[in-house]
């Protein structure tokens, strides 16, 4: 099979610079061409253009030189064929966000209460103030005061408006920040094209029709194109077709390449034929956007937003589309691995249904909400009963029609008090604190080289108990150099001089290295004088090319002599082959194949080796064992990577071999040289790993490298310490230990291996995924494990996706790895992960600090309102005052406590893990301790305040009485105590010094000062709306003094040892072992919401119904109507979730049940196999976990 381009030269090369006249082909022609697949496409190209070269001529481009890059020409192409850009979805307007914020149930109740209160305050019945209505109208001094009844209702509405605006503004700024992040990811997205014969990288948005793009393993194609030269190219088209099998591309059979699909193997060049909205992905996107139903747009757009810029949004905004792809393509082509691919697909169901913290917070908020509801209901009932009994039974009055409005006004007042108790009880500040804390951290993490793609990943990282790290590039510098070589039966400890090697050997070695490597790999001169040469492309190949240069030879002339078009066949490197081979056709009709790869693998296929004279001699298995012992193992023990370079000649008389039979071809090789490549450990890594170990995080190295090399590097990094009985094993042995006789992974067997495993060498992507999944699912240790994984290759996709947090390499990482990850390390450095841990723990602690503060306020306010209402028939803290406490304490405190910067001491404690409660015993001690102090003070003031301060009592005042000094002091003291307790809340682990590092947080200082100033304004000038009256300077000093008492009391509480207080409950637990076991039983079914189950069933039926429909447009219309119904269900709006309400923050499980379009199911396929094999179009579940979607619905 010839993979080279057609022989005749292109008509229109760059040199001619022909920019006048139109192109010989229109946008519509190209669109129609790209809609065809495989053989149809080939015949269409032959009928219309002769061949691909003919198409290149019509597009005025050269297959070798590419475009000229002339701005006039590029502009013309933009106008003729469009730009490679798909406009993003419009951001929600501020008003839309305000409307969303108004949906909060407690706010709605408050609004209704306030409106009723307002209405009734304006209604004055004739004779209503007569004595007949009891004490109702008593104490109203003048008309003016009676007219002021509306103020309370108006003030409540005003407070609600502020709460809504703050929430909406927060959401708006969050979305804006998110889009900023998005555009940053997009700007960094570059692709390799050839212009003026030079290989350059340009931003994806600048690609035009006619560009010659170089594609390689791991790329995500940014535009549609037609293959003009390919080596062993396999593409995963599941994002467009839903078929998980990799599609082999070749010029003869299937040259059509589509945007949004992943290159899983091989390399090649394509001529770009459609960009932006004219590409296949763009067309689908346009069709979907035609629908006016926003919901339809949201769900389906995410699915198809594949190409260029928007493909990042696809994952990040709706959290599903491209997340699903790499999983299906894992190694689907290799049959022996098929079995292992199945469990992978379950990932999507359980993955990120809620982050650890969200799960705990939701539970906690629900518990608090229930308690608040009961308290508020009790308050209202007691108030009404007390009033009714007192008025009608004790005073013996009868209900008369003229008194009705006044009585109703009383009931409304009671209702408002009840609602206020509820409002204060429910910590709405919680979602706000989480959002602020996460958003603040994400912004700061950018500076620490962590680009966070999913907000919750940042907090999950704080809980991490294990990190499975790659070796190359993460722990090591990924700057490879050859330091030892074994050639001509001699082991050189440094790179030999050219004259130390026989000329024939040198010749074949230099040719082999120069030709049998990606031509995109180059060594360029340093950017700065005296700097190191720049390595471009594959780093291992750069090391080999570097050796060629050290041997005083040059690789470029050899490549110029044998351009890529002349390569007869290329077997590109992949994770199962672990080698790369290139075949050339000789002049006599024979063939020569050059190979290189992992030494123990290539040496097994060698039957000869070049001896001291440079002649091939027989190389027997015993010679090989000796070589492994004497050469390869010593190199590996020095931490070197060993690569073997070999060749094989196929004589012309034997005829052309069958290139498809790889086992036959890659055999009978002749070994030329074995080199030892050094990849030095990054200088900062050992220190970072010590920090991780001190912080209770186990670091494991998972690498494809030789076990001796891996062990040597692990010892250098500090992953393996002398005198410890940790395991180092190879993938093969690992699989033998964890699989049963049927070859299935057993969790019990895995549980015996992973706790001691530190290095897994020669591992396949499947091994990495199995290990990560096994550790996450394991319940063998006290706490469940939270696992972070680093990866850079396409093959790391499944493990990155399965992990709780996936880190992709920003520099060396492939597009597929970045798509599957949660955080991108922009400097590829392990020490950045330690910073992510620090930030993650800081988020967790910030939220705990806020909770400790918030719950103290809540407990005190609820008890005061409840007992006050029961004893004095009126809440000492009025509705508006409560709202002020709620709004200011919530919003501002969340701002103050959520922005505490992290410190190194965070890394000195063990991780919390999955099921550690949010509120520890120490925090519970603080909450209850401070509540006792505050309640004592407030009740003392409430019932004895008038005598202490020598003022009038404020208890039992009539309906519209003016505010009293007494109650103003109670309110003021309450706020002062909260203010000083906010300083106490800065420490949650029982530390003594609560002021430590306070000056490092200007936000905290300004919030405390700002609240204090606002409180002065409210008390002195708030008047009737805030039920306050101005206080004297003495009274103010007393209030502040009582507040400062909080700090002293805090010292007293921290002196009490927590371990004596066994009776204290903890709250906000994560998932327990028992719950997990049930989940496992249900194969993850319980983790999907029931509504989703219904949608799943619907999916299968849709497959059946729509299976035979051919045209996309009909499909889109059909789906538009179906989705209209399926997705009208209102979004969950509980307080704690409100910050998840944007599409970009929807956890994956909520969006999981995507309705697949026809392309995902394939046109003419039987519905059920498609549903199960591609996991319902990427929804993803193994057939075993399918009962709820197939059998039950059919």
From TrEMBL:
<keyword id="KW-0479">Metal-binding</keyword>
<dbReference type="InterPro" id="IPR023298">
    <property type="entry name" value="ATPase_P-typ_TM_dom_sf"/>
</dbReference>
<keyword id="KW-1133">Transmembrane helix</keyword>
<feature type="transmembrane region" description="Helical">
    <location>
        <begin position="1035"/>
        <end position="1056"/>
    </location>
</feature>
<dbReference type="InterPro" id="IPR023299">
    <property type="entry name" value="ATPase_P-typ_cyto_dom_N"/>
</dbReference>
<dbReference type="InterPro" id="IPR036412">
    <property type="entry name" value="HAD-like_sf"/>
</dbReference>
<dbReference type="GO" id="GO:0005388">
    <property type="term" value="F:P-type calcium transporter activity"/>
</dbReference>
<dbReference type="GO" id="GO:0098978">
    <property type="term" value="C:glutamatergic synapse"/>
</dbReference>
<dbReference type="Pfam" id="PF12424">
    <property type="entry name" value="ATP_Ca_trans_C"/>
</dbReference>
<protein>
    <recommendedName>
        <fullName>Calcium-transporting ATPase</fullName>
        <ecNumber>7.2.2.10</ecNumber>
    </recommendedName>
</protein>
<dbReference type="InterPro" id="IPR023214">
    <property type="entry name" value="HAD_sf"/>
</dbReference>
<keyword id="KW-0597">Phosphoprotein</keyword>
<feature type="transmembrane region" description="Helical">
    <location>
        <begin position="94"/>
        <end position="120"/>
    </location>
</feature>
<dbReference type="InterPro" id="IPR059000">
    <property type="entry name" value="ATPase_P-type_domA"/>
</dbReference>
<keyword id="KW-0112">Calmodulin-binding</keyword>
<dbReference type="InterPro" id="IPR004014">
    <property type="entry name" value="ATPase_P-typ_cation-transptr_N"/>
</dbReference>
<feature type="transmembrane region" description="Helical">
    <location>
        <begin position="965"/>
        <end position="983"/>
    </location>
</feature>
<keyword id="KW-0460">Magnesium</keyword>
<feature type="transmembrane region" description="Helical">
    <location>
        <begin position="1003"/>
        <end position="1023"/>
    </location>
</feature>
<feature type="transmembrane region" description="Helical">
    <location>
        <begin position="927"/>
        <end position="945"/>
    </location>
</feature>
<keyword id="KW-0813">Transport</keyword>
<dbReference type="InterPro" id="IPR008250">
    <property type="entry name" value="ATPase_P-typ_transduc_dom_A_sf"/>
</dbReference>
<dbReference type="GO" id="GO:0046872">
    <property type="term" value="F:metal ion binding"/>
</dbReference>
<keyword id="KW-0472">Membrane</keyword>
<dbReference type="Pfam" id="PF08282">
    <property type="entry name" value="Hydrolase_3"/>
</dbReference>
<keyword id="KW-0067">ATP-binding</keyword>
<dbReference type="Pfam" id="PF13246">
    <property type="entry name" value="Cation_ATPase"/>
</dbReference>
<dbReference type="InterPro" id="IPR001757">
    <property type="entry name" value="P_typ_ATPase"/>
</dbReference>
<keyword id="KW-0547">Nucleotide-binding</keyword>
<keyword id="KW-1278">Translocase</keyword>
<dbReference type="InterPro" id="IPR044492">
    <property type="entry name" value="P_typ_ATPase_HD_dom"/>
</dbReference>
<comment type="function">
    <text>Catalyzes the hydrolysis of ATP coupled with the transport of calcium.</text>
</comment>
<keyword id="KW-0812">Transmembrane</keyword>
<dbReference type="GO" id="GO:0005516">
    <property type="term" value="F:calmodulin binding"/>
</dbReference>
<feature type="transmembrane region" description="Helical">
    <location>
        <begin position="414"/>
        <end position="440"/>
    </location>
</feature>
<dbReference type="GO" id="GO:0030165">
    <property type="term" value="F:PDZ domain binding"/>
</dbReference>
<feature type="region of interest" description="Disordered">
    <location>
        <begin position="1"/>
        <end position="21"/>
    </location>
</feature>
<comment type="similarity">
    <text>Belongs to the cation transport ATPase (P-type) (TC 3.A.3) family. Type IIB subfamily.</text>
</comment>
<dbReference type="InterPro" id="IPR006068">
    <property type="entry name" value="ATPase_P-typ_cation-transptr_C"/>
</dbReference>
<feature type="region of interest" description="Disordered">
    <location>
        <begin position="1146"/>
        <end position="1194"/>
    </location>
</feature>
<feature type="transmembrane region" description="Helical">
    <location>
        <begin position="373"/>
        <end position="394"/>
    </location>
</feature>
<dbReference type="GO" id="GO:0005524">
    <property type="term" value="F:ATP binding"/>
</dbReference>
